[in-house]
């Protein structure tokens, strides 16, 4: 009996110690909306590795419930404010990384009302609850699409005039404005991060192919078939080789940027808008050649018409993110991105 009591006491003290350890080591609960999505999974991992407890809120509309997790997962819709209120009450978030959104440009052109309803209403619920529950800082997933048609291969600065050309980009622009109001009226600082072309695979997560509609995953798929045929949409743009030029940034670097930007707003208590890209530009042909080199396979080019809505060139100037929150796109070398799919 005495021995049993002793074992019980030791076990209890170990449980208490570990619970206490968790409280001491976690830097706080962070709400990650869309935490089961492509960028969300890597962001939850990066938060956990940096001492936070990520709480993913996701309605599974564009993802599955992951098997590899870094914190609690709450299945639900951010448009359901009553439910979301309970989540805020339960976790007392110190910060928010808001990723949940409808994300496809052509779909937004076909269904603009759906995009306004989902992306704006969802964000309004998050912001109203952030003010009610005294959240200390927010990171918002914006996009390079807010710059519109740049017509220059020069890297774009955050101060460049914005000109969203699709309902998707417009909802992100409205989101940026709402965050500015929340800063002015409620003093909650936010980091508005304008992501460029997010790609690459985070091997630590369940997502093994990224978004298959994007260029590099589509090339990866094309190189699995024989003969290899690569479709190029638009070869008459006013760029060096006539194809579209983009800035590709690895999802692991985006996740790291989310954490660094969150820490910036939480400690500096001031808002920031920053580009998140690699700062390097590659044409569609250069990317296809990089995949071909890695796969050690030749390919046949299928030259097709331009797709409506594709802009010729967009490349990030990333000086601000590097200097203000000491972020580096350490994994965004093109070879490294291509390699990550294999
Ligand atoms: N992937 C890119 O290249 C890129 C570029 C620029 C900006 N962004 C932005 O980054 C964010 C994340 O993008 P992603 O590529 O990870 O997309 P994703 O679709 O993989 O992730 C979004 C997640 O949000 C969830 N979601 C959507 N609506 C929801 C709702 N109403 N309630 C709860 N959950 C909801 C989806 O199920 C999904 O898991 C988006 O806001 C997107 O606009 C992405």
Give a description of the structure.
There is one protein chain. Helix 2 (38-49) crosses helix 8 (251-268), helix 3 (81-91) runs parallel beside helix 5 (112-132) and helix 5 (112-132) packs parallel to helix 6. This protein has helices spanning 2-25, 38-49, 81-91, 105-110, 112-132, 167-186, 215-222, 251-268, 284-295, 319-325, 334-340; strands at residues 29-33, 53-58, 73-75, 95-98, 137-143, 190-195, 197-199, 229-233, 245-246, 248-250, 272-276, 282-283, 300-304. The protein contains eleven helices and 13 strands. The chain is globular. Strand 1 (29-33), helix 2 and strand 2 form a beta-alpha-beta unit. With 342 residues, the chain is an alpha/beta fold. The longest helix has 24 residues, at 2-25. It has a seven-stranded parallel sheet, with helices on both faces. It has a domain at 27-209 and 248-279 and 316-331: Rossmann fold (3-Layer(aba) Sandwich), CATH 3.40.50. Bound molecules: nicotinamide-adenine-dinucleotide (NAD). Residues 34, 36-40, 57-63, 77-79, 99-101, 103, 118, 122, 141, 143, 195, 197-198, 211 line the site of nicotinamide-adenine-dinucleotide (NAD). Nicotinamide-adenine-dinucleotide is lined by residues 34, 36-40, 57-63, 77-79, 99-101, 103, 118, 122, 141, 143, 195, 197-198, 211.
């Amino acid at each position: 009996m005495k021995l049993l009591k002793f074992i019980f006491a030791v076990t209890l003290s170990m449980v208490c110690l570990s619970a206490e350890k968790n409280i001491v080591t976690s830097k706080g609960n962070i709400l990650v909306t869309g935490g089961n999505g492509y960028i969300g999974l890597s962001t939850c991992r990066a938060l956990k590795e940096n001492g936070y407890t990520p709480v993913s809120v996701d309605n599974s509309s564009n993802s599955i419930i992951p098997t590899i997790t870094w914190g609690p997962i709450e299945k639900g819709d951010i448009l359901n404010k009553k439910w979301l209120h309970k989540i805020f009450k339960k976790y007392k978030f110190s910060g928010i990384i808001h990723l949940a959104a409808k994300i496809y440009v052509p779909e937004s052109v076909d269904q603009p009302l759906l995009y306004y309803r989902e992306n704006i209403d969802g964000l309004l619920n998050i912001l109203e609850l952030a003010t009610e529950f005294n959240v200390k800082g927010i990171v918002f997933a914006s996009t390079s699409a807010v710059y519109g048609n740049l017509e220059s291969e020069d890297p774009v600065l955050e101060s460049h005039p914005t000109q969203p050309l699709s309902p998707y980009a417009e909802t992100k622009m409205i989101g940026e404005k709402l965050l500015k109001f929340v800063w002015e009226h409620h003093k909650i600082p936010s980091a508005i991060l304008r992501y460029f072309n997010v790609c690459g695979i985070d091997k630590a997560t369940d997502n093994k192919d990224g978004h298959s509609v994007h260029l590099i995953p589509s090339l990866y798929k094309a190189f699995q078939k024989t003969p290899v045929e690569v479709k190029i949409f638009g070869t008459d743009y006013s760029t060096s080789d006539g194809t579209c030029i983009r800035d590709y940034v690895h999802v692991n670097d985006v996740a790291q940027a989310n954490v660094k930007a969150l820490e910036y707003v939480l400690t500096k208590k001031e808002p920031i808008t920053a580009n998140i890209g690699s700062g390097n530009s590659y044409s569609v042909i250069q990317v296809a050649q990089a995949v071909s080199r890695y796969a050690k396979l030749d390919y046949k080019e299928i030259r097709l018409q331009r797709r409506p809505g594709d802009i010729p060139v967009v490349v990030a100037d990333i000086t601000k993110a590097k200097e203000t929150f000491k972020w580096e796109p350490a994994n965004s070398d093109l070879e490294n991105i291509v390699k990550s799919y294999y």
